[in-house]
Amino acid sequence: MSGKQSIHRVNGVDINMFEVGRGTPTLLFLHYWGVAIDFRGWGQSSRNTTDYRLDTLADDVIGVIEDLGLHDFSIVGHSMGNWNSDANDRKSRYNYSTTITALAV
User: Which of 42, 48, 79, 95 stands the most exposed, by the fewest C-beta atoms within 10 Å?
Assistant: First the structure.
């Protein structure tokens, strides 16, 4: 996953920022280590399957979580990611999650 790093001069200090993707809503992460997952069939993930059911996608996410050895984390999902987060929540394998759906301003 490629992105753009930039420095913003704000209130007399340099603030580092890394930007990935485009679209709305914008998700702003503050002082966190983050992991971004492309679902199967998207981005750089494999396309050699026809199984895109939510439970299968949830199992993929759980597989990545287990592969990384994560225990205390939040899941942020928008659109399909929100549905997938709900599917993961039903499996009750993590401490907590945060979901974001479409935002209207």
Answer: 48
- Asked if 20 and 36 count as a contact pair (C-beta separation under 8 A), the reply is yes
| Residue 84: C-alpha distances to residues 30, 54, 67, 76 (Å) | 23, 6, 18, 10
Does residue 18 belong to any structural domain of this protein?
A: yes
Per-residue pLDDT tens over the stretch 25-83 = 777 777 777 888 888 988 889 888 889 888 888 888 888 888 988 877 777 776 666 66
98 CB contacts (<8 Å, ≥6 apart)?
A: 74, 75, 76
Residue that the structure tokens 């549905």 belong to:
83
| Domain presence at residue 78 | yes
**Distance, CA of 29 to CA of 92 (rounded, Å):** 24
